[in-house]
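User: For my dataset I need records formatted as: sequence, then structure tokens, nothing else. Please produce one.
Assistant:
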Amino acid sequence: MKILHAALALALTLTAAFGDDEPTTKKGICLGAKGGDMRAAEKRIESLNVGWHYNWTGNWKGGEMKDVPFVPMIWGDNQWTMDSIDNTKVVKSKTDSSPLLSFNEPDGKEQANMTVERALELWPMLEKTNRRLGSPATVHPDNEWMKSFMKGAEEKGYRVDFICVHWYGENDPRKFISRLEAIHELYKKPIWITEFAVADWSAKSIKDNDHSPQDVLRFMKLVLPKLDRLDFVERYAWFTSTPGHPKLGSSALFDESGNLTELGEFYSNHGK
């Protein structure tokens, strides 16, 4: 009973600190088409009532979804992703807010795996689209790779319009928000949270995961209204894994049948 009262007191304290907010269009989703099933992907995206989406590629092969624009990404330095730069629409006016996401975790060996020098070498190609450019989304947005890239971009006069952030941390809303504030202070640019979820990196199975779906739901209920209010956070996209994933399963928005989980229902209803 004492633990229950303590948890309730903490929730009330955090709610008072974070407050309520008006509906937002910041909310998005990062979601690919499993097995190439575009219609299934469309249904999932539509079920979440988001304002934008992306799929880690430069192309969306599904149908156009009203009020849910697709944001292309130039994932890395390889043929399949660099070819898409030719199909990325060049906007005619610099006042056009059409965005373009860039390299996905280039500091990670299992992701884009690029040197800072190569990323800077390719950057002028992205600038030629005349779109608003998101920074590379590194594993940690304040690591040496990212700092070196931003320094190099500044020295060369390259344009980086907003910072892309990935976050897979513990169930700590205050720590998450403080982290975002620190990144904003570091680079003095708007932030897009292109992937985030609560994770337990030590879990060997979903049963070992220290964060229950209810824990993640409480995290989301506290964090989303705060993100909506923060002026420097332009957009955010939850990362949904499979519900059985040992480390990320409790953050899943869909069950094995493709139906919304309780967490997914909340994400869907937020901002409606």
